[in-house]
Design a protein that fits this description.
With about 160 residues, this protein is α+β, with helices and mostly antiparallel strands. The protein has a single domain (about 1-160), classed as Aminopeptidase (3-Layer(aba) Sandwich). The chain has 4 helices and 9 strands, in the order βααβββαβαββββ. Strands 1, 2, 3, 4, 5, 6, 7, 8 and 9 form a 9-stranded mixed β-sheet that branches. Strand 4, helix 3 and strand 5 (about 105-110) form a beta-alpha-beta unit. Helix 1 runs antiparallel to helix 2 (about 25-35). It is globular. About 35% of the residues are buried. Bound molecules: coenzyme A (COA). Coenzyme A binds near residues 75, 81, 87, 109 and 113.
Length: about 160
């Protein structure tokens, strides 16, 4: 499995795998919006013999007055799930983000999956979601210890659809 940055030739396939994994078009449209906008940070794919099996994307957000990044969307095709590809996408993306001097990440998603990778409840850091969600699904990770500050997350306009 090769983990690499997305390229233009991947865009249709990324759209397609997001539609399959999420059984709807919100996430594929979100990925398209982020790519077109000013808040794009990083997009990686997991490639298996020329076929895209997984995707992860990051975009700029604010927590109060500090910069952060949102992890969204992320997916692994059903037939490739539970083989460690999601974990590899996250771990590889952390290397890029640290190199880009990003200091922390916010994610809204599966508690079991993300907590294994070091994500913690955002509420424990005083970081709040701008809309109502169960506490345990709104998570953060500090790539640089001590970088988070309490505040409300402000998502980019790409998320409003
Ligand atoms: C969530 C997702 C990206 C995980 O990818 P993956 O390649 O299957 O992840 P990994 O193989 O690295 O899984 C690592 C562990 O997390 C667990 N895990 C995977 N998906 C999970 C889920 N949806 N809920 C809870 N735990 C999950 C696995 O069981 C695995 O644990 P194990 O090794 O003890 O079995 C993938 O299941 C997916 O695309 N789901 C549909 C779309 C989605 O929900 N995306 C995330 C939105 S936040």
């Amino acid at each position: 499995m090769l983990i690499r940055k997305e390229e233009k030739r991947d865009f249709d396939e990324i759209r397609n795998i997001n539609n399959i994994c999420f059984n709807g078009e919100y996430e594929s449209k979100l990925a398209d919006n982020i790519r077109k906008g000013d808040n794009f940070i990083l997009s990686l794919v997991a490639e298996d013999n020329g076929k895209i099996a997984g995707h992860i994307m990051y975009s700029r957000i604010k927590i109060g007055d500090i910069d952060s990044v949102a992890l969204a969307p992320m997916c692994v095709l059903p037939e490739y799930q539970k083989k460690g590809i999601g974990t590899d996408l996250i771990k590889e993306s952390f290397k890029y983000l640290i190199e880009m001097n990003e200091k922390n990440i916010v994610v809204l998603g599966h508690t079991d999956f993300y907590s294994r990778l070091g994500f913690e409840k955002a509420a424990d850091y005083g970081v709040k979601c701008p809309f109502t969600v169960p506490d345990e699904v709104f998570m953060v990770i500090e790539l640089e210890k001590g970088s988070l500050k309490a505040g409300v997350v402000e998502y980019g306009e790409e998320f409003s659809m």
